Amino acid sequence: MKAAVIMGSTSDLAKVEPAVDILKKYGVEVKVRCLSAHRAHEGLSRFMEEINQDGTEVVITAAGMAAALPGVVASQTVLPVIGVPISGSVLDGMDALMSIVQMPPGIPVATVAINGSKNAAHLALQIMAVKHEELRVKLKEDRKTMEEAAMKANEEVMAKYQA
After folding, report:
1. What rounded mean pLDDT belongs to the chain?
2. DSSP assignment letter at 104
3. Per-domain residue ranges of the chain
4. CATH 3.40.50.1970 fits 2-131, yes or no
5. Checking phi first, is residue 41 left (phi over 0); if not, alpha (psi -120 to 50) or beta?
6. Residue 3: its pLDDT value, please?
7. What is the pLDDT of residue 162?
8. What is the pLDDT of residues 101-150, one digit of tens each?
């Protein structure tokens, strides 16, 4: 099981690291790169050639402002690409969100919330779980744990406010 995580700038690293941690927790091999679509386009293209051949199954891309990176990556692969819009400009990530979701027909980028790298990782895991039963089982177990925690919280609230 392999995934790639590409960010456009090292300033995005703190917002991307949670995704890397989640993927690794599930046993996914993760290649992490900082390759700007604008400033490192040749290096990005070389990396795309590499992951198109090495068994990588999904790509998470994170970028702010004009956020060209997810679209450029999607234009160079038929692998699923997940875009994470990053806040950081005066528009607080809305510019990146609008850029990523407005891809032309035929070059889709799945898009999560601004700074939503955790959900990007979970979406990547769900995509890979189509092929990998062990991921599907672990995701179901983790969902059950989340449900149990939510129900416990509900019981605590009910107990606090019951007359």
Report:
1. 95
2. P
3. 2-131, 133-163
4. yes
5. alpha
6. 98
7. 87
8. 999 999 999 999 999 999 999 999 999 999 999 999 999 999 999 999 99
Exposure string (b/e) for 120-129, b if CB count within 10 Å is 16 or more?
A: bbbbbbebbb
How many Å apart are CA 118 and CA 28, to the nearest integer?
Answer: 14
- Cα separation, 25 vs 8, in Å, equals 24
Q: What is the tens place of the pLDDT at every residue in 69-84?
A: 999 999 999 999 999 9
Token representation of residue 36: 């700007």
* Structure tokens given for 80: 């699923």
The DSSP call for residue 10 is: G
Q: What pLDDT score does 163 carry?
A: 57
Residues in the chain: 163
What the block records as the tokens of 61 is 């891309």
The token duo for 111 is 């898009």
CA distance 77 to 72: 9
The strand order across the sheet containing 110-111 reads 29-34, 2-7, 58-64, 81-86, 110-111
The answer to whether 62 and 11 have CB atoms below 8 angstroms apart is: no
Half-sphere exposure of 131 (CA within 13 A, CB side): 10
Q: What's the predicted TM-score (pTM) here? A: 0.93
